[in-house]
Amino acid sequence: xxxxxxGFVRRRRHKKIIKMMEGQHSTRHRLWxxxxxxxxxxxWYAYRDRRQRRRDLRxxxxxxxxxxxxxxxxxxxxxxxxxxxxxxxxNRKMLADLAVHNPEAFAAVIQAADA
Length: 115
Prior knowledge:
Blueprint (H helix, E strand, L loop, with lengths): L7 H13 L11 H40 L4 H10 L6 H10 L1 H12 L1
């Protein structure tokens, strides 16, 4: 098999990785091998945490809805059940936003769900 010299192509690839790792600590932004390891790990964390952020936000919304529901004399599970029974299609993000920024409207939603 013939010998293939990568030449400037490899240098370009290495420089791209090193540039991606600017701002990293110690050898992670200087040495290509360490920078490549750090880059792969950081991309993996970014992928994982984009999904985890959705999970965390939903937990936050549920907590806020539960707190506001308890102030209005019901619980989270009863509220969600009554909203489904009354065919009120409000997602948890909107319910949590109402609970925090407009408690009167949230109370009105609870009244409509119970009626």
